[in-house]
Amino acid sequence: MAFTNEQIERYSRHIILKEIGAKGQKKLLNAKVLIIGAGGLGAPAAMYLAAAGVGTIGIADADEVDLSNLQRQIIHATKDVGKAKVQSAKETMEELNPDVKVNAYRVFVTSENIRELIREYDFIIDGTDNFPAKFLINDACVMEKKPFSHAGIIRFKGQLMTYVPGQGPCYRCVFKEPPPKDAVPTCKQAGVVGAMGGVIGSLQAMEAIKYIIGQGDLLTGSLLTYDALKMDFRKIKLPSDTCGCAVCGTNPTITELIDYEQAECDGAL
Amino acid sequence: MLITVAGVKKEVKDGLTVSQLIVDEKVETPMYVTVSVNDEFIASDSFESTVLKDGDSVEFLYFMGGGQ
Lengths: 269, 68
Ligand SMILES: [Zn+2]
Known about the structure:
The complex is a heterodimer. Chain A has helices spanning 5-10, 12-15, 21-30, 42-52, 85-96, 114-119, 131-143, 171-175, 194-213; strands spanning 32-36, 56-60, 101-105, 123-126, 148-154, 157-163, 222-227, 232-237. By secondary structure, chain A is of the alpha/beta class. Chain A has an 8-stranded mixed β-sheet, sandwiched between helices. In chain A, helix 4 (42-52) packs parallel to helix 5. The longest helix of chain A has 20 residues, at 194-213. Helix content of chain B is 10%, strand content 29%. Chain B is mainly β. Chain B starts with a strand and ends in a 7-residue tail after the last strand. Chain B has a 5-stranded mixed β-sheet, with no helix packed on it. At the A-B interface, strand 5, strand 6, helix 8 and strand 8 of A face loops of B. Bound molecules: zinc ion. Zinc ion (ZN) binds next to helix 8 of chain A.
C-alpha cells in the first residue's frame, strides 16, 4: 500500500519520527483498536487514535449524549445531545480523518457479547466507568489473549496500567474482585475534572500507538497514578508473581465470564 | 525503623503491622485497598499478621472506577 500525497502530508509529523516512519504509519493504518466507552476517557483516546490514522477503530457504548457529558467528553458537541454516543463519536472521528473506518457498536458489553467483540481487534481500551465492566474487559482480554489499557479517573486522580498477555499482571491480579456496590465512589456523585479524561485517555491512546508501532516500554507490570492537585505522577511497580491469579494464573478458577451487578449510576455516565 | 510508604521514607515504631499502617496513613476505603510490600501482594486477611521490617517498601493501590 502506497501513501497518497495527502496521507504523506497528513502524517508528516509521524513519518519524520525515527520510531514511526513510513513503516510505523502503515502499521497504524492497518491496526484495529476497540474503545469500550465513548466517555471521558474514550473521547480523547478515540480522537487521538483517529487523528493518528489508526485504520479501524471500534467504539462500543449503549448511551446517548447528555448535556452533563460535555464538560469532559470532547468527542461530542452541544448539537449531539440526545444522539447515540457511538454515532456522535463516529461522526467526529470520520470528520477528523477520512482514512479511518469506524465501527460503532451501540451495546453494553456483557459476558454474552464481549469475547466476539474484542476478537477482531489488536488492542482494547477500557474507557468504562464501573467495576463490573472493568473486570469483564480484563477477564475477556485474558481469555482472548488481547492486550488492553485499563484506566480510571475520579475527582482529581487517575490511574493507568497496560496488560499484555504473558508480560506481567492483569487487572484482577491487582484488584482481585469488584468492590461491593457503592463501597467505592465511581459515579457522578464523586465528580471529576474534565481534563482528567484528557490526561489519562490520551495516555491510553499513547499506549495503543506504542503497542502498534512496537516501540518503547509499555506500562506493563506497573500502575501509573496521577494526582492532579499535587501534580504528582507515580509509576508503581507491581508484583510480578501472577501465578495465583484467578484468571491469568497457572490454575485459573475463573474460566467463564462473570456479569457482576452494576452500581446505580442514574444513567449519567 | 525506617520504611517507605508510597515512595516516601517514614520513621515508624518497631513491630508495626500493615493493619496499623493503614490506620496511621488514613487510607480511604481501607476494606478495599490492595497492599504490596517489597513488590509482593499481601492478602487482606494477612494485614493484621504482617509485621513490617526496617527498610520495607509499602504501596497502597486503590480502586479507581470512573471513566465516563
Ligand atoms: Zn491476573
